[in-house]
Amino acid sequence: MTPESFEFAPEPVQIRLVRSWVRERLAAGNVPAGIAADVVLITGELATNAVRHAAGPLRALLVCADAAVWIGVEDAGGSAWFDPVVPDAAPAGTGLTLVAACSDRRGYFHRPDGGKTVWAEIPLAS
Q1: What pLDDT shows up at residue 86?
Q2: Nearest to 64, CA basis, from 99, 22, 102, 106
């Protein structure tokens, strides 16, 4: 599968559209259902965080390679992203903990235009 992207507005209603877009692309790429479910979950968390905390416009990125699926969300804001350690008893704010649990690698990078891309990589085989 070649790299693909999907622009979306920084509005909560758009999260459903982003997840649907990713689900359709993964099905077309024959990604196994269990892995696809993790990728869709991660996409929803990254997109939700972008809508809540970042500046628009927003773009979801998807790359399926032989060994892994890479998902990213771009925003126009340059604020830092962090990989949290959230206590088990935390009542909220555990979305990035789900991303960490479902991915092998994750992080962010600043882009030359001042924005950032938050990403996660999910292996296709265990």
Answers
A1: 47
A2: 22
